[in-house]
Design brief:
With 182 residues, the chain is mainly alpha-helical. It is 59% helix and 0% strand. The chain is globular.
């Protein structure tokens, strides 16, 4: 799945469970953090001579050890709901991995295995033969559902994923909406 879908899944998982913006932000960002191992693609495109993306994508960011480390960091960064933030972070990283196994096949048919036991075992890669392509209708349907979920919370709780970027921007969005309704 795309990083945008991972982010929305992560943020939506927090709205009913975490009371503070800080904790929701930690979990939401943790949900996209496994894709840090794809940043090698940026280096590859700049240099034109490296192949870091092919070598490292779905390795160190998509493994169990990474989930443990990020969850521990989330625990220490959280202020009010430390244990729940840690548990949600660990869970959401695993949901990220599951989503990648289900729906992240390349347009050329290449499957990106998840090397869950990296760095201890680099031979065992998790894949699923039914994996759909990144641009498949299933991912589009999931993304539409996620936006509908976000709209629900925007209307019901006056809260959006924009809070992760800027609480002031979120307030401005609702202020514009309120002015438009008048």
């Amino acid at each position: 799945m795309t990083s945008g879908a991972h982010f929305l899944i992560s943020w939506l998982s927090t709205v009913e469970l975490l009371n503070e913006r800080r904790e929701r932000t930690i979990v939401a960002l943790s949900g996209i953090l496994p894709d840090v191992d794809g940043l090698g693609g940026v280096v590859d495109s700049i240099t034109g001579t490296t192949s870091y993306y092919d070598k490292y994508h779905h390795y160190f960011g998509h493994c169990g050890l990474f989930a443990v480390i990020v969850s521990a960091i989330a625990y220490f960064l959280a202020k009010s709901q430390k244990k729940l933030t840690c548990i949600l972070t660990y869970t959401i990283i695993h949901i990220h991995l599951l989503c990648d196994i289900i729906g992240s096949k390349g347009p050329d048919g290449h499957q990106w295995p998840i090397y869950y036991f990296y760095p201890f075992n680099t031979d065992f890669g998790l894949t699923w033969s039914g994996q759909w392509e990144l641009n498949a209708w299933q991912n589009l349907a999931i993304m539409i559902s996620l936006f509908l979920g976000c709209a629900f919370y925007a209307i019901r709780k006056r809260i959006t994923f924009i809070e992760v970027i800027s609480p002031r921007l979120q307030s401005a969005v609702f202020q514009m909406y309120d002015n438009y309704k008048r």
